[in-house]
Amino acid sequence: MASTADRGRFAEIVVIRHGETCWNASRIVQVILDPGLRERHLGDLQGLTLRDAAKLRPEAYKIFLSGKRDGEIPMLITVNDISGERVIVLTHGGVLRELHRRAVSGRSSDGRIHNTSVNVFLISESGNWTIKTWGDISHLDEIGVLNNAFGGDRTSG
């Protein structure tokens, strides 16, 4: 944990990947509607299942799978405005991947981003990002959930 003195110099952002939603289980592409904290709108793919997206919008689907991003996720702008606070955010794996890239200067994260994983970023007043905790799923150890849970898809990492 950051000390009280550190909280004056850093924002501590605790980012937790959500559990499996009904849309996840149905393989439907989604986005949260809050304009300050949302993932990209996925245009022609929005609301389609992955299977339908591949069939009905093959070019858009190809771009989606490529991982290329044309713009910054709006959440980064919102998070940069927080100073000396601890904030907890529940989000999707895609947002976590973007936050990780931001903290490590564009490098990708290794491995899956498990559902319910806890990830902690520190952001200095000068805007420097560091990762304090990445992919912590120790809260699941005692109940053995990872033995049979979804835990994220093949693109989760």
TrEMBL record:
<dbReference type="InterPro" id="IPR013078">
    <property type="entry name" value="His_Pase_superF_clade-1"/>
</dbReference>
<dbReference type="GO" id="GO:0016791">
    <property type="term" value="F:phosphatase activity"/>
</dbReference>
<dbReference type="Pfam" id="PF00300">
    <property type="entry name" value="His_Phos_1"/>
</dbReference>
<comment type="similarity">
    <text>Belongs to the phosphoglycerate mutase family.</text>
</comment>
<dbReference type="InterPro" id="IPR029033">
    <property type="entry name" value="His_PPase_superfam"/>
</dbReference>
<protein>
    <recommendedName>
        <fullName>Histidine phosphatase family protein</fullName>
    </recommendedName>
</protein>
<dbReference type="GO" id="GO:0005829">
    <property type="term" value="C:cytosol"/>
</dbReference>
<dbReference type="InterPro" id="IPR050275">
    <property type="entry name" value="PGM_Phosphatase"/>
</dbReference>
<dbReference type="InterPro" id="IPR001345">
    <property type="entry name" value="PG/BPGM_mutase_AS"/>
</dbReference>
